[in-house]
Task: structure prediction
Amino acid sequence: MVDRTSVLIVGAGPCGLTAACELLRAGVPVRVVEASEEPHTGSRAIQLWPPALEIFRGLGFLDEALERGVKVRTMAYHLAGRKRLDVVLGRRNEPLLLRQEETSRLLEETFAALGGVVERGLRVVDVVNGADSVTVKVDSPRGVEVVEADWLIAADGVRSTVRERLGVDFPGERVGATLLLAEGRVDGPLDAGAVHYFLGRTGSLVFARMAGGRTRVSAAIPADAELSPEFVQSLLDERGPGGLVVRDLDTLTTFSSSERIAARLRLGRCFLVGDAAHTHSPLGGQGLNLGLQDVHNLTWKLAGVVTGKLGEAVLDTYEPERRQAAEQVVSTTSRMIKVFTVGPFAARVRNGTWGLLQATGALRRWFVPLMAGWRTPYPDTLGWGGAKWLPAPGTRAPHWVPPSADRAFRLVTAGPRAGALAKHAASAAAAHPDLAHHHVHRPTAGFLLVRPDGYVAASGRTAAALRAACDKLERAS
Result:
């Protein structure tokens, strides 16, 4: 017997669950299979930047996530000689520290409320990518089952079975550093609401207070180091500010990472998201955020195709857009791990440069928005046109564009008053059932056509340009 579904999602981690929730909200039937028999536990990825939090807002559980986590207001860089540089992030750039098991729990509760069920203990053993469907063999407690899906989303992690069965290469190389991960109770003077980076000449260390009295400590250490609470204490004494005392650790391990991007992010009717698509150094907390943005990019397009609102050609934009984003993150985190693990002489140069960047405001103006995820552009894959002095197609909508929880395209007009351009936009929105219009009072007049994932599809200043953008949207439907 062959089971049939519209979209099969392999993997019930945060990326798979987010994809399932987004698609169900859009009216697309999904089936989620997960090899593990129980939900994953532990902190794992803990730092969620604002673009990821906006996804949670759309799914309706942002407030609960905020209650369970700790907002980061400051990045504190501690340099040699007890010099401390505090970079106040500003509300638009503040991440949330939340244990990954809490993130997964909130997503699975949302999925269940939408009528979904995670099917656990089902392991994919084969994938056949056909012209009109994907056929997947699944090993289950009932024996081997065959699932036929119109589309498949592989969210099954860095060792993705789907990627392997599709024959997609995963080129790249291992990162040389061995990193410590310790969590538990650490007493001392360092404040919550900040992630502390100790960049001393004897080595680097990251220290973050989490909810529930937990603290995470991470550091580059020798590969042959013997792990113990006493070893963690020695690192804090040597590299930290002094006065930090390890009381109890329930997590103590090491890990290494690789820098890899799959050779294909889409193969026919199959899409790779999250760690199945890319992996990199964990410094900066980019990994889960990158995967969630994969999902955010893909699901509105796939939902539009499945429901008949968009043509299949829109799916061709997933690969180039998300590859560019992955390449940017891998490059950024690669530089970060090198900066984090330099020797004593280079550490003096690094710290001097860091101080200069802070003094000139470059950390706040450039580095912080980059880490937050606001400086991740896409190529102009839709080719719908832009105007000088307005946000370009492929860039994120600016901060003055109001957030939206629905999955519609939006025409956002700007100007001192809602004049003729706004009237044209309102008329276009009324004629298109999946287009909303908002006017924002700004000094300069113009319009933006904003995609459901918050990126600019087109921009312009005239009614003719607005009509042309709407015509292209209509032809894409």
